């Protein structure tokens, strides 16, 4: 048995900001994917995944008991499959900000949720919000606190526009120009990042008035503008706002940027060859880059592996 495939995602804009109601834009990234499998595989990965699913099944039982009006699962089938060695076979790197736990949550909901909301029905705003709430509760098992966006993206495999916490919609983004010089790319930091401690750090900083003001007047302002520009295909304006956003992140989110990238980050802003931003919660994993000329960016970032995810 092999379940359907669920893909990784990239939150192009909105990391941290969406906690405080900024806009956000999340797109599926089909390069990485995962599926539930039931063949008895004795690799370390399969055993580790199976053990994690055991704990997850227990956790879902608790959710069902406390919130049966929100979601119910075929727990009997889930537990039976888990005891038969089911695991999540995934190429999505963990701790890289591309939604490894989100894909797993989407796969479990898809297979075991009763009266599930399907991708084929008319997805009203209410249904999307309900799915997001369910996924947020489910994914909290892995992160401590989850917005539910990663699993939603993986489940629908559509770009998602976050207007605010209670207002999300599937959206379309401009078609890629495969001949274009501009690109969005991933830069491998070479280390993993843990979501929970980074979010904890952010929440601590939110206690300071100066940080809250910066978030509202600068970070969220530029994030919202980038989302609008990207969806509407305003490339020139997008890069102006990206430069500002990259600057704000370097000045105020330093702990979330791996130390060895501080210099590269600054270099991009000063040369305009590329602009870097956090991909997910930061602390490691991937860093997201934007450039108007991918050849220039490759040259400036020589020695680093650039993975292009979208062409302008």
From TrEMBL:
GO MF assignments: ATP binding; kinase activity
Keyword Kinase part of the UniProt annotation: yes
Source superkingdom: Bacteria
Residues in GHMP kinase N-terminal domain copies: 86-150
Pfam families linked to this entry: GHMP_kinases_N (PF00288)
Keywords in alphabetical order: ATP-binding, Kinase, Nucleotide-binding, Transferase
InterPro entries in the record: GHMP_kinase_C_sf, GHMP_kinase_N_dom, HddA/FKP, Ribosomal_Su5_D2-typ_SF, Ribsml_uS5_D2-typ_fold_subgr
Protein name: Mevalonate kinase
């Amino acid at each position: 048995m092999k379940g359907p495939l669920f893909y990784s995602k990239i939150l192009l804009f909105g990391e941290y900001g969406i906690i405080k109601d900024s806009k956000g834009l999340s797109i599926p990234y089909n390069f990485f994917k995962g599926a539930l499998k039931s063949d008895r595989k004795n690799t370390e990965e399969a055993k580790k995944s199976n053990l994690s699913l055991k704990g997850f099944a227990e956790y879902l039982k608790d959710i069902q008991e406390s919130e049966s009006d929100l979601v119910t699962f075929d727990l009997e089938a889930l537990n039976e499959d888990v005891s038969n060695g089911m695991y999540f076979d995934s190429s999505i790197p963990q701790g890289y900000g591309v939604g490894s736990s989100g894909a797993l949550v989407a796969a479990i909901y898809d297979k075991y949720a009763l009266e599930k909301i399907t991708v084929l029905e008319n997805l009203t705003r209410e249904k999307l919000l309900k799915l997001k709430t369910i996924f947020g509760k489910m994914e909290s098992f892995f992160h401590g606190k989850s917005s539910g966006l990663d699993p939603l993206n993986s489940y629908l495999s559509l770009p998602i526009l976050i207007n605010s916490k209670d207002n999300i919609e599937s959206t379309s983004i401009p078609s890629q120009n495969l001949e274009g010089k501009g690109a969005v790319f991933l830069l491998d930091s070479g280390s993993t990042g843990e979501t929970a401690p980074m979010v904890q750090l952010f929440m601590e900083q939110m206690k300071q008035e100066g940080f809250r003001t910066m978030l509202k007047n600068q970070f969220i302002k530029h994030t919202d503008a980038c989302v609008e520009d990207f969806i509407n295909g305003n490339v020139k304006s997008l890069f102006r706002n990206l430069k500002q956003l990259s600057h704000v992140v370097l000045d105020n989110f330093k702990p979330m940027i791996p130390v060895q990238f501080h210099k590269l980050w600054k270099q991009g802003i000063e040369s305009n060859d590329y602009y870097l931003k956090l991909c997910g919660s930061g602390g490691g994993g991937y860093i997201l880059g934007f450039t108007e000329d991918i050849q220039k960016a490759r040259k400036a970032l020589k020695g680093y592996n650039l993975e292009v995810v979208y062409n302008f």
